[in-house]
Specification:
Elements lengths: L1 E10 L2 E11 L4 E5 L6 H9 L6 E6 L2 E2 L5 H7 E4 L11 H7 L8 H14 L15 H14 L7 E5 L7 H16 L3 E5 L3 H7 L2 E6 L2 E6 L1 H4 L2 H8 L2 E6 L5 E5 L3
Parallel strand pairs: 3-8, 3-9, 6-7, 7-8
Antiparallel strand pairs: 1-2, 1-4, 4-5, 9-10, 11-12
């Protein structure tokens, strides 16, 4: 289990996160929701160990994440970030293979794993293409495939920062299926999303963030109410369907 306890972070006298405590449990999907600047990506960076908090702690199975050797941590935790700076003319299959590096697999098993991940995201026809020649949505699919290639038998946590921002509806749903499959293997998943309806489909636990503070945490039914979401986003949110999961529409507050 990944646990954050009392995390606080400031930069240039500005509070980015204040007193954040949450648990990412094996087999469960946690979705972080909130307006721009709420601290979602910053929180994900702290959970991954890529950043350090001013106070509080992040631990994986009671061991501080900051004290886990980075090579070993990459086997325990996989993360997709919004920024994917890759300007070299690597083939798509080579980019996906980068995800296998922390697993230290022999070349034949790496090839099998890469082929499987390409198939999962319908990337076989792009396997030999120059990554830099792809569209934004295609590049995002490749990068998500790379991260999922890193999710080996020892992986315990998968962190995803807006992984569907450039995908069309088909691939958004395909990714949600893959994320659920990963969680069913006992991996704790945490995902930043902006689409309320995708979040309601995916989440076992929802964390609402507002200006770096916890606005709410709990199940979809408990936390994703029209009142909470309207207050969180400063926009009129209406729940139009409630079963099997809520569906929301939004508009400006007049």
């Amino acid at each position: 289990m990944l646990k954050a306890s009392g995390i606080c972070l400031k930069r240039s006298a500005k509070t980015l996160l204040e007193d954040i405590s949450l648990e990412l449990r094996p087999g469960e999907i946690t979705v972080l929701l909130g307006p721009n600047g709420a601290g979602k990506s910053t929180l994900l960076g702290l959970l991954s160990g890529l950043q350090s908090a001013d106070s509080g702690a992040v631990s994986l199975n009671e061991q501080l994440v900051s004290e886990i050797d980075p090579q070993l941590r990459a086997r325990f935790m996989a993360m997709y970030t919004q920024q994917q700076p890759l300007n070299f003319p690597f083939r798509v299959e080579e980019v996906v293979a980068l995800g296998c590096y922390p697993l230290m697999l022999p070349s034949d098993l790496t090839a099998v794993r890469v082929s499987d991940c390409l198939a999962q995201f319908e990337l076989q026809s792009l396997a030999l293409r120059d990554y830099t020649s792809l569209s934004g949505g295609e590049q995002q699919r490749v990068q998500v495939a790379r991260v999922l290639a890193q999710v080996g038998e020892e992986c315990q946590v998968l962190l995803l920062d807006e992984p569907v921002s450039e995908m069309d509806l088909k691939y958004q749903q395909l990714l949600l299926q893959r994320v659920r499959a990963v969680a069913q293997r006992g991996v704790a998943v945490c995902c930043v999303l902006h689409d309320l309806n995708l979040a309601a489909q995916l989440a076992d636990q929802v964390v609402l963030l507002q200006q770096g503070r916890m606005f709410g945490v709990g199940s979809v039914a408990k936390v994703m109410t029209a009142i909470n979401l309207s207050q969180l986003y400063g926009a009129a949110v209406t729940q139009v369907v409630s079963d099997p999961q809520p569906v929301f529409v939004s508009g400006l507050i007049s």
